Fold this sequence. Notes:
By secondary structure, this protein is mostly beta strands. Helices cover 2% and strands 51% of the residues. The chain is built from one helix and 18 strands. It has one helix at 147-150, and strands at residues 6-10, 13-15, 21-26, 36-39, 42-45, 47-49, 52-56, 64-71, 79-88, 92-97, 100-102, 108-114, 121-124, 129-131, 133-137, 141-145, 156-164, 172-179. A hairpin with a 7-residue loop joins strand 17 and strand 18 (172-179). The longest helix has 4 residues, at 147-150. It is elongated.
Amino acid sequence: FHDSSLKSISPSRGSIYGGTVVAITISSSVWSPSIQVQFGPFVSACSTNSSGHLCRSPSFKSAGLSPIFLSVDGGLSFVPTSVKWEHFYSPVVLQISPTKFACTSDNLLTIVGMHLNSCSWTLKTAESSTSAIFSSIADEIAVLNFFRSCSSLNSGLHTVDILCENSAEALESFSIFIFNLPKILSIFPSVL
């Protein structure tokens, strides 16, 4: 078996904390129930189901690129591939303002932290999951249009999980209190 047996991995990047579910596609001529993938120096056993092979990325000490090696014999031998795995620093939220939030289309959340622009964000609550829409984002500060994410939430305290790329697990979370603005139904007396 050779490098062309590894057709693809998806996604091709994940957090340095590991745990990203990675789909491995190998050519149909090479099938094995004991696929293992080596991300740099770290080995990950894969599970096999009807749609292919799934592995979890390992954790790394720092961000960077690592070569991918593939084993179809349960880890007895690994073959190098041309595929690389990118491991990035996960976003770290240090401060959110405001922490009490009326869910209207013109309200923005300001997020201060580290590595905020290292990945595409999905915001997940108990009620919904949406892609984050930023007005601006840099490494240490981001301005988030939270309306799409909060529009399905009821009033009260909510925990919002930040998922990067295709991560199944939250890399960071924050709490925010959502309240409804009072609605004016009528004004009395209505003298003009």
